[in-house]
Design goal:
Length: 311
Amino acid sequence: FTEEFKQRYKVDAETKPRAKIRLSQECEKLKKLMSANTTEIPMNIECFMEDKDVQGRMKRATMEEMCADLLARVEAPLQAVLRTSGLSPSDVYAVEIVGGSSRIPAVRETIKRVFNMEVNTTLNQDEAVARGCALQCAMLSPTFKVREFKVEESSPYAVQLKWKQSMADEEAELEVFNVGSTYPQAKMLTFYRKEAFTLEASYPGPNHYQPVIGTFEIGKVVPTAEGEASRVKVKVRMNIHGIFRVSTASLVEKLPTPEAEVKEAAPAEKQDDSMDVTPPQTDGQPTAEAQEEPMNTDQGEAKPEDGAAVS
């Protein structure tokens, strides 16, 4: 419309902020009208610039043609949802879309084509939020008795940790939480180090673009009495809001056992290390063992395993 008004009325909306805002508002109204009408719809603005009244017209097909490159992006996230969930369109019972922009006819047609079914628009956005909050309050209240609904939150992004190896300048990395991990959740990592070290948490992304979540300093790490690498246990946590953080770090020290007690003690059972996600320690390189802990869903926190070193 800016180019059209330049030619027809010799006015440039780009040069006047007030005129540009008015044109944007009128275009928004026109877009909403085109969602419900296929015919050509007029647009009139009085005293637009230099006391001139301007007029314009547009059809829905023209707008869709102009926005074809933007509308083509709708299908990719829909296909990604099906791949991530492991479902086929025939496994989906119903599709409900909420929000004004999702009800654009071109967007609805794309959703219908991907899921091979009609989409529903019976849900109001504000009403859905209010009803959900009321139901959650009733579930938490001791006064009301309602049917329990279990909601599991999952992370759409993976979280990885990076650190420098003690005997080399190379960086090591470990994907702590993968895509689709439910939260709240906590894991215990084990490092073998002789000095303080730094952990960098980030979201792994394509083309080496990895947004950094934060950097965590693990200090006060000293070698053992024999001069070997000490065992450092680091607990990482994704809280009830899906926010990653390093919860605690503990230095594990092995105390000598009196010889008399060793003879009387029963043979120890073999520990179950089925949760280890990395190979055992090698010379000069730290290792990280990830152990998933049982979650306390009432408090949104994970309880440590029995015997785990947690400060």
